[in-house]
Write a structure and sequence with these properties.
One of its GO terms (molecular function) is pyridoxal phosphate binding. Pathway: Amino-acid biosynthesis; L-tryptophan biosynthesis; L-tryptophan from chorismate: step 5/5. This is Tryptophan synthase beta chain. The beta subunit is responsible for the synthesis of L-tryptophan from indole and L-serine. There is one protein chain. The chain folds into 2 domains: about 160 residues, Rossmann fold; about 220 residues, 3-Layer(aba) Sandwich (Rossmann fold), CATH 3.40.50. The protein has about 400 residues and is α/β, with parallel strands linked by helices. The radius of gyration is 20 Å and the shape is globular. It starts with a strand and ends with a helix. It contains 17 helices and 14 strands. The protein has a 6-stranded mixed beta sheet, with helices on both faces. α6 links the parallel β5 and β6. α3 runs antiparallel to α5. It binds pyridoxal-5'-phosphate (PLP). The site of pyridoxal-5'-phosphate has 19 residues, from α12 and α16.
């Protein structure tokens, strides 16, 4: 079992730019310290290389099925005729079907330690909401989830399952908050957006006793919790990988897998020849086409600004099925590593990604999440080019609740 999380900010080539307040308006940093569990605030700013995982969270990791399997994709290797060996870490094996539970159990635990009776969050496609619902059921506190109305209508299964675990799910915009009411007054048929949902979740968290807000990606402590993935992979891999690949929404699953390896490389403890490749969607290409600057992590500008690759916090991505990759920015530590050339980047379109998803499904007998299929697309392209060598990638989730994405595959 892994007993501490790895904090890459201790080993970065230069200091991580801290979160910042805008020049005008209320302090967002003060707001953040009010709504987040206090241990998470500490973790956001700590320079400690290893952060001990509380015993209770270690126990929860065991209960949800950690360590997750590391598998060799022999079927995929044969299907593409490569001499490279391909390994993947299967985070879809966790309850809920994605890596998000790794940070959900930690965050809900810290909220409960702060005396919270309810955690509040937003969700787009619903993977994060479902992870929070499961973690809250395990720990025994309430979960309140604001889900973008469009997804609420289209991802009925995730809504249903969140409720089975006891979560209270509202389509956003809702009439539970002033911001929601204002949005509905302007447009009664507003389809919802992550920005509106975040604003509603924060307003709701601030507006009641015993409530804490918890986020699903982008913040540094989320990446920190996900490093259990890479630390396990390091123990499980039979050899050093030449290439480590993951998909990027806000950056948590890619960083969770790759940071322990990148950290070892930065410390001079092996992996000298290992390359790292972050794969994003053409629908939100912040790493390949965005700017490195201070920007808000949320559309409404409620949270402190962070220095990251961003397309602008008001960027409206075209609707794509891999909803988890529609985010406008990428976490500060990952952005810095991209900026300084330690991590390579690439973006793909929906068609070529779903084609890779189907090949993986047929050759490995696992239906991948459309998000994870971006990593698979890159792995296939790289493996075809490599003459031997070893690839490791993160299968961040399974796609069994993503019928809408697969419908597209079968269309002529
Ligand atoms: C949320 C999600 C992502 C994208 O988020 P990151 O924070 O970049 O990891 C990728 N894959 C799956 C399965 C997800 O649920």
């Amino acid at each position: 079992m892994i007993t501490s999380w790895y904090n890459i900010s201790a080993d970065l080539p230069r200091p991580l730019p801290p979160p910042m307040d805008p020049y005008e308006g209320d302090s967002r940093i003060a707001l953040l310290t009010r709504i987040l569990p206090s241990d998470l605030i500490d973790q956001e700013f700590t320079a400690e290389r290893y952060v001990p995982i509380p015993e209770k969270v270690q126990e929860l990791y065991e209960r949800i099925g950690r360590p997750t399997p590391l598998r060799r994709a022999r079927g995929l290797e044969r299907a593409i005729g490569t001499k490279a060996k391909i390994y993947y870490k299967f985070e879809g094996a966790l309850p809920g079907g994605s890596h998000k539970l790794n940070t959900a159990v930690a965050q809900v635990y810290y909220a409960s330690m702060d005396g919270a009776r309810e955690v509040v969050t937003e969700t787009g496609a619903g993977q994060w909401g479902l992870a929070v619902a499961i973690a809250s059921a395990l720990i025994g506190i309430n979960a309140k989830v604001f889900m973008t109305k469009n997804s609420y209508m289209n991802k009925k299964q995730r809504v249903l399952f969140m409720r089975v675990f006891g979560a209270d799910v509202s389509p956003s915009p809702s009439d539970l908050t002033e911001f929601g009411k204002k949005t509905l007054a302007k447009d009664p048929n507003h389809p919802g957006s992550l920005g509106v949902a975040i604003s509603e979740a924060i307003e709701y968290a601030v507006g009641g006793e015993g409530r804490k807000y918890i986020p699903g990606s982008v913040l540094e402590f989320v990446l920190l919790h996900q490093t259990v993935i890479g630390q396990e992979a390091m123990q499980q891999m039979p050899e050093e990988p030449d290439l480590v690949v993951g998909c990027v929404g806000g950056g948590s699953n890619f960083s969770g897998l790759s940071f322990p390896f990148i950290g070892a490389k930065l410390m001079g403890k092996g992996f000298e020849r290992t390359r790292f490749l972050a794969v994003e969607s053409n629908a939100a290409p912040k790493l390949t086409r965005g700017s490195y600057m201070y920007d808000y992590p949320d559309t409404a500008g409620t949270l402190p600004m962070i220095r990251m690759y961003t397309l602008g916090h008001d960027y409206v991505p075209p609707p794509i099925h891999a909803a988890g990759l529609r985010y406008h920015g990428a976490a500060p530590s990952l952005s810095l590593l991209v900026k300084d050339g330690y991590v390579e980047t690439r973006s793909y379109g929906q068609g070529e990604v779903m084609e890779a998803a189907r090949l993986f499904a047929k050759s490995e007998a696992i239906l991948p999440a459309p998000e994870s299929a971006h990593a698979i697309r890159a792995v296939i392209d790289e493996a075809k080019r490599m003459n031997g060598g070893t690839i490791l990638f993160n299968l961040s989730g399974h796609g069994l609740l993503d019928a809408d994405a697969y419908e597209r595959v079968l269309m002529p």
